[in-house]
Amino acid sequence: MSGLKDFLPSMKIVTEVVELLLQTANAWLFEGQHSGLSDREWMALRFLGRANRFSRTPSALAGFVGTNRSGASQIAAVLERKGLVTREPSPEDKRSIILSVTFQGKKLLERDPVNVLRDQIAALTVDDRSRMRDTLRHVLSRHDVVRGRHHADICSECIFLAESGSGSDRQFKCRFFRKSVSSKDTSLLCSHFEGKAPSKALDQN
Fold first, then answer.
1. What's the confidence (pLDDT) of residue 101?
2. pLDDT given at position 8
3. Lowest mean pLDDT among 7-16, 123-132, 168-177
């Protein structure tokens, strides 16, 4: 009986957390247009502005925004028509397309509707921000296991990233693509991300 008493308050908190997450979604899920873009077009522009060179492709974009390649191509075409994105053949594989955010696109991202939420999170203490990030990353990783998929995340946190050297001789390599990675790209999103083992502290919570 005591177990049931403990379970009910715990589920109440879980429900409240889910409800709060759904309410924060209003910052990036909205009807109609915001500064000339739909919420999914904003999502695509946001992703392309933060994605590394391996992930700025129509296929990676499709996975991130939750559509098929045709749908992603249509979104990319809208962004390109508005001068926010360019589409060019990959220098490594001419059969592949690389999508890049233009200067105009970067300026529009400064008015991203999620920036209000970003600023509120920035006002938290460093410890609170870190705990929020780590907890959400942990929840998302478990969700990916259930759905049999991968979410995009920071390159430096991926098990495929190998590091060698130190200081000015520090070098990075992606073991998934078997290609070198610039220091800048290690801080960007990768759609082929594979997370490291979650910490025991989070597993015990």
1. 97
2. 56
3. 7-16
What is the distance between the alpha carbons of residues 50 and 48, in angstroms, rounded to a whole number?
5
In this structure, which amino acid lies at residue 63?
A: G
Q: Where are the beta strands (DSSP E) in 10-138?
A: 85-89, 97-101
CA distances from 134 to 66, 128, 149, 176, 198 (A): 23, 10, 19, 24, 9
Burial of 190 (0-12, 13-18, 19+ CB in 10 A): buried
Three-state SS for 25? helix
Claim: this prediction has a pTM higher than 0.85: no
Domain ranges of the chain: 31-109, 132-203
Instruction: Count the Cβ atoms, other than its own, within 10 Å of residue 191.
Output: 21
Q: For residue 197, what pLDDT is reported? A: 60
Q: How far apart are the first and last CA of the chain?
A: 22
Percent of the chain with pLDDT over 70: 87
Tell me which CATH code domain 31-109 carries: 1.10.10.10
Rounded to an integer, what is the distance from CA 162 to the centroid of its chain? 21
Q: At what angle do helices 69-81 and 58-65 cross, to 10 degrees?
A: 100
Instruction: For residue 14, give both structure tokens.
Output: 């879980």
Residue 56 has pLDDT above 60, yes or no: yes
